[in-house]
Input
Amino acid sequence: MRIDIITVLPELLRSPFDHSILKRAIDKGLVEVNLINLRDYSTHKQKSVDDYAFGGGAGMVMSIEPIANCINALKAERMYDEVIYTSPDGELLNQKMSNHMSTLKNIIILCGHYKGVDQRVRDHFITKEISIGDYVLSGGELAAAVISDSIIRLIPGAISDETSALTDSFQDNLLAPPVYTRPADYNGIKVPEVLLSGHAANIENWRHEESLKRTKERRPDLLK
Ligand code: SAH
Output
């Protein structure tokens, strides 16, 4: 898989891909992540990528030219399954969307800034708009990192124990059960007995019950 992230702040996005599961997936060649500096596609002397909003008002707007130049240059090289724009008014990211995106071959993620991008970019170049939650970030970079992380960890081979990603929250519309590790007794605070029993079926049952209980308590909407 290939993820091309268009940003004015490539430095901000280096670290998330340089650690842990994401770094390993990249090192193994399971995914290629390219951080593309939008300013490289600006034809202005100052390399500017934004301008005043038509109609006035506070805040700059990202211009169509550099974004169009950049996306067209990428599209000339290969086909893209999706050209994603990170936006608070986009579709709310969820596990189902990440599962689907992890099966794609090439995607572009465009990070917005300031007041956002010229609407014509969204109308003519973007195929999918994703929000990571009902709050406003300063830029799309952290959203792009969240989207990419949720996708990359699902690519077969990214997590050493592949079943691990399938037992995480949301995969079956349930939240994950509680987890414990050694010591079994911490100053009298004990781990549930069943987990020490070695009885696989009982453990499986217990985990399922706990998942259900937790989902009913915290996210009853998932059970509908
Ligand atoms: N004026 C816009 C917000 C701009 S915030 C509005 O009110 O809708 C600047 C940029 O940060 C956006 O263009 C977008 O790319 C990114 N961003 C902000 N909040 C986000 C969110 N919840 N999810 C995804 N991207 C977000």
The helical segments are 20-27, 64-77, 95-101, 119-124, 141-152, 163-166, 200-218.
